[in-house]
Every structure is written in structure tokens, then in C-alpha cells.
Amino acid sequence: MLEIRNLHAVVEGEELEILKGVNLSVNKGEIHAIMGPNGSGKSTLSKVVSGHPEYEVTEGTILFEGEDITDMDADERAHLGLFLAFQYPVEVPGITNKTLLREAYNTIARANEREELDPLEFEDYLVSKLEIIEMKDEFLNRSINTGFSGGEKKKNEIFQMAVLNPRLSFLDETDSGLDIDALKVVSDGVNKIASPENAIVMITHYQRLLNYIKPDFVHVMMNGKIVKSGDISLAEELEANGYDQMQKELA
Amino acid sequence: MSEETKALESMIGEEYKYGFTTDVEYEDFPKGISEDIIRELSSRKEEPEWMLEFRLKSYRAWLEMEEPEWFNATYTKPDFENLLYYSAPKKRPSLDSLDDVDPNIRETYEKLGIPLEEQKMLAGVAVDAVFDSVSVFTSFKEKLAEAGVIFCSISEAIKEHPDLVKKYMGSVIPARDNFYAALNSAVFSDGSFCYIPKNTACPMELSTYFRINNMESGQFERTLIIAEEGASVSYLEGCTAPMYDENQLHAAVVELIALDHADIKYSTIQNWYSGDENGKGGIYNFVTKRGICKGNHSKISWTQLETGSAVTLKYPSVILQGDHSIGEFYSVAVTTKKQQADTGTKMIHLGKNTRSTIISKGISAGESNNSYRGEVKIGKKATGSKNYSVCDSMLIGQSCGAHTFPYISSENASSSVEHEATTSRVGEEQIFYLMQRGISEQDAISMIINGFVKDVLKELPLEFAVEANKLLDIKLEGSVG
């Protein structure tokens, strides 16, 4: 589904490389976790894959379902079924969650020549997805992330993921800033969305999240590269010994 | 600066490609201003002696006044000796069909959803027999007359309803109020007069009528609206359709009077030519607008969407004289390119338990400058009064400016004043967030802007709120990427 080959990227207009040759392959039905210390480039990877204009790819390619998306605009990538749950969801005052999601859903439907939903149908569809994150209807009529608590913002990301039903989702530090109850709700939501037809890449600093969402593969990212891949035992090893230890071993 | 920001800036700086000119046949009237010119103007308009006196007194006051310079804008001052203070009523339509109209203009009309026949009137196309404008006006007029509402040009009112005009004209904005009000009082061309009798709700929004009827407002427009006890009216001036005017200076005066329990809602959409990339050739919009809540429990509400003009100086205000009266000001001011706007309001609380609300949203892009200037004054006797103000500014790009100048004073301890102000930038993060959800860049920007101004646009009459949203989109639309 996703094939990242030798990906190098810089902040646009700057020299310093943040990604220094990332290789990653994700198939449908899989859940991956990318772990790494602060500044290792893992959040950058999710932004580059989803087309953030702040970054420039200097080398390598990103293939999605066989198509080269390296130079595509962010909205076109979203149309193909790529989703990013933001580490810091952005506030957009005056536009409700519902308006955003209807616009987004129908735009993606149009791009894929699927039928759009009229406002009434869409309302029903939305309400049916609310239970995934245990939120009430009023959630739909609030302005996007405006005045939301940290936990609500993260839940909103997972709710949007449920509504837009992407093929591949990057979850960027979705666990950060969540208390244990919210973490359970969010993880349950992700587990409900996960299916043999889609794939999920979690980016996280801590092993804690992996107790709730079980990954098939764990990758360790350091200094702009994936330095080690394995199964869940790799995360356990990290939890026990820390990133420093691993860095030393690799060196 | 990133590509994104550049795209944003170029998009919001879209050329004003919808302006249009018609050849104007001036009647033979001398340029410049003097007592003789005012006498000539008044006599051509066949005005009574008292009106001429009003004009001459105003002119003499104007001569003693200094042109103001205290606002946050710079421009070349108008040459008052080189202006034409009288122009003949509008000439005949000059085009035969809509096919002759600039396709850009037609596109704008269509985007705005303006009905075909109205399009023709706006573009100066001869109207065919199917749509007889005269009969439409007549039916409006009949409906209003049945309710006892007087709605006519100010020139007509001076002749037909002299007592009302004498009593109220200049009562809210005296000629000496300021330089441009004095000039307007001396040479006003025409404008509207509206009188709603006691306990009458005006049977229609005066907007539709106004849009068709007000194509020849002239540069010194004068408007007077009086709502008697228990009367109510909603009035809309201007329209979303772009307007070109060969007069550079516009100095209008609008006075509103609300008696006991009366309610006046006055909405403005202003989209005049704002000049070229260098700010050259745009309109100067120096308007004095003020209403008085004369009666107890009366209410005056100003809503404005200001997108045009090179320079705008405008402070629609309310004097809250009656006890329990309410004043409101809702404003969206958009400046792009080199536009300059210094706009806001004054809420002067004199009566007890009076309330005022100010919601101002400024959007600046390009190299423009957008200032909010507002005064809230609560007098000694205005006990138990409240004001709530919000002034939000949004910046697009790196070269524009937004400023807030609030002046607040309260002379009694039982009143409260609350002021909030924020400044934000349309961020790349916001745009990326929406694009990541599948929304195009252009739609993302439009969503962000529309969300920002929503609290104000919902105060516009419904049909115009829809048009206003489209107007903002058109203003922002353009070369994406």
C-alpha cells in the first residue's frame, strides 16, 4: 500500500536534512508503530508523507497504491485515502466540525466518483460514527477544535478518521497529552476502525500506547532514518533499556 | 516567504476586474464651490428657501473648518475647487443587451446570484418589456404607502414633507459636526428619506427596493430615517455587485432617529473601486453615520461589510439617549493591495440601563492597512449600562497591518465595559489541516475567512448574507498555487 524509498527531506529553503534516507513499506491490514527520541524525524515523516508544504523532498520517492505521490498536493493525497491525525490539531473558529466533515467527505467522494451524501444522509452517517469515540451530538456543532480540551482535540482526530474512512492513517503522537481514560477511548476507537482493508502507522514516543493498540511491526527511528525494525518485542526492549542504550548498540 | 504565502497574497490581491465605466454626459455646470454655486445647485433642484439657508450656513461653517488628519491613513487630499457639485439625473441606458456587457461583470453577477433583470439595471442595459422597472417600483411604493411608510428621495421629501425634514435633518449630525459632514450639508446631491409611522413594522426589507433604486446616489449622499414610537425597519444600502464611480470622493451623511420602542436596522455592503496595485484611482469613502436612540427601549443596529474603496474613514455610531436603549455595531472590513481603512464606531451612553455591543472583524492582506477605532463612553447618568466589545483582526501575508484604537470611559460605578481584542494570521497550519482532510487550498482559505466573519454576517438580512459570503470568496479567489 505504502512504499517509501530512500526519502530525504529538508525544511523548504533550508539545507539541514531532517529525513536522511527513510525506507518503509506498509501493506493493507497492518498496524505499524514508529518510535524514536525527540528530534528523530518521526513527526516530520508523517508530515512529508501527507504533503505538508513546509517540507521539500530532496531525494527518494513515496508510492501509494503504486502511484508516485511525492509531489502531490496534500488534498490530492487525502483524496487517495491518506489521513493524518495531527499531534497538535488546528483550531478553525466559526466553522463547525460537521461543516468541515461534510465538505471533506463529499470532496473525497467526488474525487473518487462516488456518490455524495446530502445533508440529512450525512447527519445520520455522522451520528453513527460518534459512538466510536463516545462523544455526544453537540460535538458536531462546535467550531473545529476551538476551545476543545487536549483530550477532545485528539478524540476529534480519531472521529474524523472514522468518518473519512481512509486507507492509510498516520497517527502522530495521538497518545500525547491524554489521561488514561481518554487514552482508552481513543485506542478503542482506533481498534474499531482498523480492518483488513486499511492500514495504520502510529508515531509515538512511549510504549504505553502499544499496550492498547497492538502493532504488527515496530520501527525505531533515529537521526532521520529507520534504524531498526521488528515486532512488539522491540518496543519492550526500548521500554526496558531506553533509546540511548539502543543508539550505543547500533554504533 | 513560502509558496503558500505567496499564493495567498496573490490571490487576495486579485485585480478589481469587474469595474466598468459609462460615458457620462455632464450637464453644463461650473466646477468648484462657492455661495453662488450652492445657490445655483439649490435652484436647479427647485428647493425651498429654508433648504438653501441650511446649505449656506453649512458652507460657511465648512469654510472655517480644517480638513482632519488624525486617522491612520495617508492620501492626497481632494481638490475641492476642482470637483463638480451637481450632476444631472442619470442618462439613458447605453447598452442594448446583456451580451454587450463585459463577460467578467456578468460572471460576477452570476456568482452573486443576482436575478437577470436586476443584472440589466446594474449594468445599464435597456430593460425589456417583460420586466417593467417602473411597475415594480410602483408596486413597492403601493405596498409601503398602504402601511403609511414614506420612502422617497430626500429631494422629494424636502418638497413633500418639509416639516419632517426640517425637524430632523441635522438633528443627529449637525453641519458643524465635522469637515466632511459640513461639506455634505452644503452640497448634498440626493439620497433617501424614510419615515415609519407609529406602531408600524415596515412591511418589507427596504433592501431589494434599494438595490434597484439607488444606482445614482452621487457623491454627497444624504439619508434620513425616522422610526416613530413602536416602529421598526430594516434597511440595506449598497450592494455586493461591484460599483465603479467616476467621483473619487464620497462624503455621505446618514442620520437615524429611533423614538420609544422603535427599532432600526441599517446594513451596508460597500464594494467600490479600490484603486490599482498602487492604490491609484480608488474611491475615498468619508462617511458620517450616526443614529440616536431618542426614545426609551429603542434600538439601533449597524451592520457593515466594507470591502471596497481606496481609503475608508467611517464610524457608524449610536447615541443611547433613551433609558434601556440598545446600540449595536457589527462590522467586517476587508483591505487588500494598498487599501486603507480606519473604521469603527462610537457608543455614547446617556440613558439609564443602556446596552451596546460592538463586534468588529478586520481582514488585512497585501500591503493594506486596517484600523479599528472605537469609542465607548458611559455618562454619569447612564447608570446600570453595559458595553461589550470584540475586535478581531486577521492578517494574510507579511506586508499588511492591523491596528486597534479603543477609547473607553465610564463615569459611573454601576456600569461595565468589556473589551476583547485578538490578532491572528491565516496560518499555513490551518490551510494544511483542511487540505489534509481533502479540501482544496482555495476552499480552505474561504472556509477560514468565512468562519472568522460569521458572527457579523449572520446579522445581515438573509439574502444578503449569502451574497456577502460569495463576495468574500470572489475577493479572495484567484491564482491558486
The most extensive interface between chains reads: A-B, 35 and 27 residues
Classify the beta-strand content of chain B into a percent band. 25-35%
Tell me the number of helical segments of chain B per DSSP (H or I, 4 or more residues long): 13
State the share of residues found in helices of chain B, binned by percent.
25-40%
Shape of chain B: globular
Number of strands of chain A: 12
Q: What class would the helix/strand composition of chain A place it in?
A: alpha/beta
Task: Please name the defining characteristics of this protein.
heterodimer; A: 251 residues; alpha/beta; 7 helices; B: 481 residues; 11-stranded mixed β-sheet
List the helices and strands and how they pair.
The complex is a heterodimer of chains A (251) and B (481).
Chain A: E1 2-11, E2 17-26, E3 31-35, H1 42-50, E4 55-64, E5 67-68, H2 74-80, E6 82-85, E7 92-96, H3 97-111, H4 119-130, E8 143-144, H5 150-164, E9 168-172, H6 180-193, E10 199-204, E11 217-222, E12 225-230, H7 232-250
Helix pairs in contact in A: 5-6
Chain B: H1 3-12, H2 35-44, H3 49-63, H4 103-112, H5 116-123, H6 133-146, E1 150-153, H7 154-160, H8 162-168, H9 179-187, E2 192-196, H10 206-213, E3 222-227, E4 232-238, E5 249-250, E6 253-258, E7 263-270, E8 284-293, E9 299-306, E10 311-314, E11 317-320, E12 326-335, E13 340-349, E14 355-364, E15 369-378, E16 386-395, E17 401-410, E18 416-425, H11 428-436, H12 441-457, H13 462-476
Parallel strand pairs in B: 2-3, 3-6, 4-7, 5-8, 6-8, 7-9, 8-10, 8-11, 9-12, 10-13, 11-13, 12-14, 13-15, 14-16, 15-17, 16-18
Antiparallel strand pairs in B: 1-2
Helix pairs in contact in B: 2-3, 3-9, 7-8, 11-12, 12-13
Concise description?
The complex is a heterodimer of chains A (251) and B (481). With 251 residues, chain A is α/β, with parallel strands linked by helices.
